[in-house]
Amino acid sequence: MKKNVSKLESAEQLASEQQQETQTQVTRQFASAEELLRFDASQVTPPARIIDRLQDSLAQEPPVKRSWWRRWFCRE
């Protein structure tokens, strides 16, 4: 009977620890949406297939042309 009680207590302790961890993650606040996105990007790494597809897609994009007024007024 004591083994059942100890298993129950350990399960309750584990559940309370997980709840505390969840609560600490939920209480995080961000000043802006950009800060939230940067935090999320630092926590999550996309799969290699997605990274490869994105790099291929960006390589196929045509170069960006500057508008006539930028070419005329912004001589760089």
Q: Would you mind describing this structure in some detail?
A:
This protein is an all-alpha fold. The chain has one domain. The chain contains four helices and no strands. It is elongated, with a radius of gyration of 26 Å. The model has no long low-confidence stretch (mean pLDDT 81).
Sheet with most strands: none
**Count of distinct strands:** 0
What amount of the residues lies in strands? under 5%
Can you count the helices?
4
- Any idea how many domains? 1
The low-confidence runs, each spanning 5 or more residues with pLDDT under 50, are none
Could you tell me how far the N terminus lies from the C terminus, measured between alpha carbons in angstroms?
Answer: 82 Å
Overall average residue pLDDT:
81
